[in-house]
Design a protein that fits this description.
It is a single chain. By secondary structure, this protein is of the alpha+beta class. The protein contains 21 helices and 12 strands. It has helices at residues 34-51, 60-85, 99-127, 131-141, 158-161, 172-182, 193-202, 213-231, 247-274, 282-293, 298-310, 313-328, 333-349, 361-364, 381-388, 471-499, 525-535, 546-551, 569-575, 581-597, 653-659, and strands spanning 89-90, 93-94, 400-401, 417-422, 429-437, 443-451, 456-459, 561-565, 602-605, 617-621, 629-639, 642-652. Helix 2 (60-85) packs antiparallel against helix 3 (99-127) and helix 12 (313-328) runs antiparallel to helix 13. The longest helix has 29 residues, at 99-127. It is globular and about 85 Å long.
Length: 662
């Protein structure tokens, strides 16, 4: 099922993969000494045993309460250990967003539950006059497995996020926490991640963090994963918080969700303040972002935009267009122009986003007036639905490939492929996706997403067609709207033929496409050079990102079933030996999902055959490495539309074509 823009709003998320040059993933030394860390842990266990005591003179009710709470702490520690070691599934939790990020999100939630229990024990000890003894034990109970929750950055820790209130609190300290925690990632910040870690470590010198420095430094190194799970996931959709889950896991999941919700609240507060110059805190927040976005350090500039909210696909459009509007109104031109320039850099280089700008118009649009061209009326969403309304419900449960030759493209250049997909939960919501591919293999997509149930239209053009001086962008949108009407008419005819439906007399016929008018494409050599330079910056998106879900099946024709033969474990391990352990899991799951559902990977033929002339094929799978991985395939059998393939090799894209001489 095509999912480009056809998901619920809270599903429009993606994992931060960063820019190509920021995600080369060099081998970086750990922030701590592993041997010293193990010895410190033994000392930590001894410290807990020494501080542990059995309270006397408790009432029966308080004693039962005390031991129930301490037992809950033990269970939380066990839960944390299990979450850290089980990346596939645990207690009905589907780790579908990113195994490491999801696990750390749940561990952070369990840490907040742990802290709540410790606070209850604190009140109990105070009521029964053993507070002094308990105060020695309490900080150790919040350390151990949940040390990451105790790490502070400029006085802010994860526990402070749950108390954030947009009406009473400045978001700046929380934004700074997210930014500085992300800088500890050696993959993203290879030059100075050690320096970032040391700065945070110097702010965490209270007991027991100072007493166990290597355990503390290890926790600081975990911060980017924890922040990733909070920053890129709306409301923790990857956990089904249901009564069927174990109670303790359900509590941890609810606290994780609260952390995620608070990060979303912070980002909403940022936009609310930044685009209202009269709001309290505007000058301080504007100054904060100006300082970061003017730095020469590209890592910090990109991370700043991500914590602002640009890791969400829809926020890129929202902030960019709001900035355009503020400039038109003559408000803070310099700052909003800085935002626009920064977003343009981000959108063009962070290639997990399939975004088109007005600079890409020559790829799709010929602005030369056509002779004898009649003025076409821009259709409404209700007219779109009028074409589709009489189709059977089953027709809305799949995607359709439309022959571009059947469409009169007018001033639009014909795409190489055309897909129409429906929202499986709302058949009145559909997307038309036009895929363009140059002779050098560079791809660009244009998507128009129409929701006829609430009369809304979205598209992946960054510029706002409502801006007065954007005539070319407005022309492109108008052309795309008119062509969508033609596309839907061809789709309806195709579906009626496929399902044997006869069109009754008097049925609604809105617009029939005229015969295609073929036109010569004007080749702009300067534009071609610019596109060739930018082609190296594009990559396949993560399999869990909004965009990859949209384009996962563009190469596969509906009705053809491909099956990949998965070899025995030993041979499969040998084939996967060239990728990381995390990517092994991702690639294995993607192949299985492709066999079962036809999703999770993009299938396609290769132009270069093997040395004996046998055709070869590929599966494109997004993973932790820029441009993803490739599974090289050879066809074994073809029978009645069912095709079977064997795996020849599995490597990252940067290696497989060179090593296999493709």
């Amino acid at each position: 099922m095509l999912k480009y823009g056809l998901m619920k709003e809270q599903d429009k998320t993606n994992i931060i993969t960063g820019l190509d040059e920021l995600a080369k993933r060099p081998t970086t030394p750990p922030l701590y000494d592993e041997g010293e860390r193990n010895r410190e842990y033994e000392s930590f266990v001894d410290a807990v045993k020494t501080a542990y005591f059995r309270p006397f003179f408790l009432s029966d009710q308080d004693e039962k309460r005390f031991w129930n709470l301490t037992q809950k702490l033990d269970e939380l520690n066990t839960l944390c250990t299990q979450l850290a070691s089980e990346f596939n599934r645990f207690g009905g939790v589907g780790l579908t967003v990113g195994m490491v990020q999801t696990t750390h999100g749940l561990v952070a939630g369990a840490g907040l539950v742990n802290e709540t229990v410790v606070q209850e024990l604190q009140r109990l000890s105070k009521r029964n006059q053993f507070e002094e003894k308990f105060n020695v034990l309490a900080p150790l109970m919040s350390f151990g497995n949940f040390i990451v929750n105790t790490i502070e950055i400029n006085g802010i820790s994860l526990r402070d996020f749950v108390n954030f209130h947009s009406k009473r609190t400045s978001p700046i300290p929380y934004l700074d926490f997210l930014l500085k925690a992300a800088l500890v990632d050696g993959d993203v910040n290879p030059g100075s991640y050690q320096q970032a870690s040391d700065e945070i470590f110097q702010q965490n010198q209270s007991y027991p963090k100072a007493a166990f420095p290597n355990m503390t430094k290890q926790a600081i190194g975990v911060l980017p994963n924890t922040i990733g799970s909070m920053s890129t996931t709306d409301g923790l959709e990857f956990v089904d918080i249901s009564p069927q889950l174990p109670p303790l896991l359900r509590e941890a999941a609810k606290m994780s969700k609260l952390l995620c919700d608070k990060v979303i609240e912070i980002k909403k507060a940022v936009k609310s303040i930044l685009f209202n110059p009269n709001s309290p805190g505007y000058f301080e927040l504007k100054t904060y972002f100006e300082e970061k976005l003017r730095l020469d350090n590209k890592t910090i500039r990109i991370l700043t935009l991500q914590i602002m909210g640009l890791n969400r696909y829809d926020s890129i459009f929202d902030i960019y267009r709001r900035s355009q509007k503020m400039i038109k109104e003559g408000k803070e031109d310099t700052f909003y122009q800085l935002l626009i320039d920064s977003i343009m850099e981000y959108a063009q280089e962070a290639s997990q986003f399939k975004i088109v700008t007005k600079d890409d118009m020559p790829t799709f649009l010929d602005t030369t007036p056509m002779p004898d061209r009649f003025k076409e009326v821009i259709p409404s969403t209700s007219q779109f639905w009028a074409i589709l309304a009489k189709l059977p419900k089953v027709a809305f449960q799949r995607d359709y490939e439309i022959d571009p030759e059947k469409i009169n493209w007018g001033n639009l250049y014909p795409p190489q492929s055309l897909i129409v997909g429906f929202d499986q939960y709302n058949p009145k919501r559909f997307a038309c996706i036009l895929n363009y591919e140059s002779d050098t293999g560079e791809e660009a997509e244009v998507a128009l997403i129409v929701d006829t149930s609430n009369n809304t239209i979205e598209w992946n053009i960054l510029d706002d067609p409502k801006i007065e001086d954007e005539e070319e962008v407005k022309m492109f949108q108008d052309e795309l709207m008119v062509k969508t009407m033609n596309i839907l008419w061809v789709l309806r005819q195709q579906v009626e033929e496929e399902y044997g439906i006869s069109t009754k007399s008097g049925s609604t016929v809105v617009v029939q496409p005229s015969q295609p008018i073929k036109r010569e494409r004007f080749v702009d050599s300067i534009y071609g050079l610019r596109k060739e330079v930018r082609s190296e910056q594009r990559q396949q998106a993560s399999p869990t990102s909004f965009i990859n879900l949209s384009f996962a099946q563009l190469s596969e024709r509906p009705g053809i079933k491909h099956q990949i033969v998965i070899p025995e474990d030993e041979k499969l391990d040998d084939l996967l030996r060239h990728v990381s352990s995390v990517d092994k899991e991702i690639i294995g799951n993607a192949i299985r999902e492709y066999n079962e559902k036809g999703t999770g990977a993009k299938w396609g033929p290769l132009r270069t055959p093997s040395h004996d002339g046998t055709p070869r094929f590929k599966l494109v799978i997004g993973c932790t490495v820029p441009k993803g991985a490739r599974v090289l395939l050879r066809e074994l059998d073809s029978d009645n539309g069912s095709r079977t393939f064997e795996i020849l090799d599995v490597r990252y894209r940067k290696d497989i074509y060179r090593l296999n001489k493709l």
